[in-house]
Amino acid sequence: MDPQERDQQETAPRKAKLVVVAEEGDALFEVGNDQNALDIRVSATATKTIRLPEDDPKVVLAFCDVVHHRVDDLDHLETDELVKLATFADMRLCTRVLRPWVLMRISRFIDTINREEGAYWRMVDSTYDAELIFQLQKLLPIVTLFGMERAFYKCSRIMISSFRLASIQTGVPASQAEAHPRVTEVQGKLHSSGGIHGRSS
Questions:
Q1: By CB count within 10 A, which of 47, 72, 152, 188 is most buried?
Q2: pLDDT in tens, 108-157
Q3: What is the domain extent for residue 32?
Q4: Are 118 and 185 in the same domain?
Q5: In the chain, pLDDT over 90 holds for what percent of residues?
Q6: Are 189 and 137 in contact (CB under 8 A)?
Q7: DSSP labels for 3-39?
Q8: 28, 51, 74 — which closes off a domain?
């Protein structure tokens, strides 16, 4: 945002929807300045207003819902939104607070990579799941930011296998292979939905 746009937003009257996360909340997050702006009331030790004009209101609301254990309606979050949530938590040094919920949220995906890792590493092409690889590419930042070392290790092994399989099937050197050809085939279809799920047993 350039300085002129910032000045215009600061002088224009701000309209925001109030969302109450904690009924007795004594802190208010003013998030965003556009038509999606939210005022989020949460619990805190002192009455104050915290302004976050540059943040995504939906992401901040999801963060507040998680830390206040209001997670029943968060299963709809798509992969891109989880990455934004992880980035927000990392910037505020709050990843430890969100880690248990994130681990539960991606547990099915983790189960899948635990089950499939060996076949990928042995380069068994018949087991290749392009949708899984596409999701893995998008979720790798999450397991990194939340310090999930084993998940990162296994995801990395599968990614390396993807490059090797692409090299074998296309004749392109592994150093130049961006992904297995089947990933490209499904990216357009999956990019808009990008849900998190593993392969059924």
A1: 152
A2: 888 888 887 777 767 665 556 667 777 888 888 899 889 898 888 888 88
A3: 3-74
A4: yes
A5: 2
A6: no
A7: HHHHHHHHHSPP--EEEESSTT--EEEEE-SSTT-EE
A8: 74
